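Per your request, structure below.
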């Protein structure tokens, strides 16, 4: 979905905050209702019954009736969808919403005139109980908007996301295939030899973040000083997140436009970033090193890059088995764990082929795409015939 930066006035912001409160309150009531259900009891109330109970609650509580019924009903609708995803085993069970985290609400039944453009870089959206709220027109809003979601991040910024899926990017039709190896030092290495790195905070920003974290450790919990420090930290981290997302969007768009098939490793990222802390009886080993690795994986946007590639190039992203991609020689196919001399150097002891270790892994990923497509009955995308040109290309580099 296309997301835009909202620019509400202080008066409008107070009403938006109240909408977030009401949506969180209704959501948490639904969570509490389903938490009381046990096997053998009557079924927990569904969406229709909860809407009836919401009508009674609005009649008994003037502060709840002062809010938007659309916002409150859609919070129940979101909870119903979350429970359905839980029973389908695609998502975790919905839990409590905390103040300051995942703040937002959804508005449906949007009319064509509820979103309009005011000037070249300014647009307006009509919000219930608020009126017209301005947002930054950074790109064209797709026609046919039926609903949108307004959110507030931890840095205090407001955004609006219109629920209209953009059209996928058309393939170039050249028959080219690229392998993408994701790493911690190099965010994405391409089989063409290109090394891409996701931007992070600059050195002065990292130093300021460290000072703020030390200041936060000394602040008293619940104090105004601690709240100000947390907000400053959130703004710095939001800046880093924005840079990473911008890099992912530009990189995924370029790959979708340049290549017909994009091959990546089928990594279980959620399992890879699990903590190694262990328990008191069986404590883990290398906990600090594992924590640093987890931060590196998240900072390089491994999952987001593949997700956006699947959105922009549906059906053209091939996931291959990640085993031995960093230990196999892309020229002769010999697997040797000692061939990787360092993080950046790969030198095959069998044929003498030498290249950047991440690029060699990307070549193996690209070559594995041919086996994956052939197994499904399609034409091979890569094989031994393609090894020598790739080897000559890297030797020339």
């Amino acid at each position: 979905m296309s997301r835009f930066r909202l620019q509400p006035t202080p008066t409008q912001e107070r009403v938006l905050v109240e909408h977030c409160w009401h949506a969180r309150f209704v959501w948490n009531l639904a969570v509490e209702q389903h938490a009381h259900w046990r096997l053998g009891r009557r079924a927990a109330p569904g969406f229709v019954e909860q809407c009836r109970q919401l009508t009674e609650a609005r009649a008994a509580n003037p502060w709840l009736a002062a809010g938007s019924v659309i916002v409150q009903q859609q919070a129940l609708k979101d909870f119903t969808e979350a429970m359905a995803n839980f029973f389908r085993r695609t998502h975790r069970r919905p839990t409590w919403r905390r103040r300051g985290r995942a703040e937002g609400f959804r508005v449906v039944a949007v009319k064509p005139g509820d979103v309009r453009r005011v000037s070249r870089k300014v647009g307006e959206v009509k919000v219930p109980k608020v009126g017209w709220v301005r947002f930054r027109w950074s790109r064209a809003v797709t026609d046919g908007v039926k609903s949108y979601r307004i959110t507030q991040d931890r840095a205090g910024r407001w955004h609006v996301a219109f629920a209209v899926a953009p059209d996928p990017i058309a393939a170039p039709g050249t028959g080219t295939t690229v392998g993408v190896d994701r790493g911690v030092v190099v965010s994405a290495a391409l089989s063409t030899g290109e090394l891409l790195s996701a931007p992070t905070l600059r050195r002065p920003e990292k130093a300021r973040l460290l000072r703020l974290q030390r200041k936060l450790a000394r602040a008293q919990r619940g104090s105004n000083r601690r709240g100000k420090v947390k907000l400053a930290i959130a703004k710095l981290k939001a800046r880093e997140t924005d840079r990473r997302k911008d890099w992912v969007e530009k990189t995924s768009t370029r790959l979708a436009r340049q290549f017909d098939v994009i091959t990546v490793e089928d990594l279980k990222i959620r399992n890879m970033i699990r903590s190694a802390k262990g328990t008191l009886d069986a404590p883990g080993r290398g906990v600090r090193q594992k924590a640093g690795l987890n931060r590196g994986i998240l900072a390089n946007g491994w999952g987001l890059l593949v997700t956006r590639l699947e959105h922009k190039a549906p059906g053209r992203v091939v996931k291959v088995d990640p085993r031995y991609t960093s230990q196999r020689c892309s020229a002769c196919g010999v697997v040797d764990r000692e061939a990787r001399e360092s993080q950046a150097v790969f030198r095959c002891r069998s044929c003498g082929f030498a290249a950047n270790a991440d690029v060699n892994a990307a070549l193996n990923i690209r070559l594995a795409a041919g086996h994956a497509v052939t197994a499904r009955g399609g034409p091979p995308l890569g094989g031994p015939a393609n090894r020598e040109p790739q080897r000559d290309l890297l030797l020339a580099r």
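The mean pLDDT is 87.

Regards,
D.
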